[in-house]
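ingest -> validate -> predict -> emit
validate: passed (alphabet ok, no gaps, 302 aa)
predict: started
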Amino acid sequence: MHSFVCVFIGEKMTEQTTGQNTSNPLQKYFRQPKLHVRLPSGGKYYPPGALDLPESGEVAIYPLTAKDELLLKTPDSLMNGTATADVIKSCVPQIKQPWYMPSLDVDALIIAIRIATYGEKLTITVKVPNVGNEKDFEIDLNTVIAPLMSATFADTIKMDNMTITLRPLMYTEITKDSLRSFEEQRVYNLVNDETVSNEEKMARFREAFNRLTDLTVETVAKSIAKIELMDGQVVSDPKHLLEFMQNTSKEFYTKILDHITEQRDKFGVKPFIANTTKEEQEKGAPETFEVPITFDQSNFFV
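emit:
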């Protein structure tokens, strides 16, 4: 039942209905999904409430809005990951909490958003090795995203009578670790600082190196969801897992790290193989060379 409010205008009384939703006549012109994709993770590893995955297993990809484009041009937002999280929430609304999406899905979703907004082709400008002249290459992003969609995350390995279950890091964990690493690496700017003594430089370098080493071990420990022992005991306490990785053998640690790196690389974007002309080869250029595909906002989202 509607409630009515009496409004007096001069000597006339009119009735207005309150609590009634007014639909926007322009709503049918709002942006629509341009494509639907399966998540590389298959929807696994999301915490409850972070993903609303349809029965089809595919999420809708919307093109960027003007606000999204502005976010991608804000250096601070790019640095701390806010821009990427906000853009994915805007363009992939079925991901309710982008900060908690597994790292497996990040690159694939960024590429899908780029395709939905600007199309399947990406032109990149690079310098030809040993020649130096700049040259444009056109990349079909469908060939870039396809390997990410078909990759499989091997989350279980057996070592030393243990069954180790791994998990991909969440986007929030990756961002925080990257920022910490960046801050520690800034210490190397001291190399050319003549106001700082060599003794102080060495002390700061040593401290930064130790902190970076600790960060690496912490990251590996966070990638372990649980360890099951032969007697059936399951260890999943993050503190216990970290303590174990800090005190295990170098061989055991290296095997875990290598496996994690191998899984991560499966979901990373492979470089583009560029071909050169005979004329360029006569000037010293190789027949082919690798071109890294980076999500540089100056050329990827334009």
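Confidence is low (pLDDT under 50) at residues 1-18.
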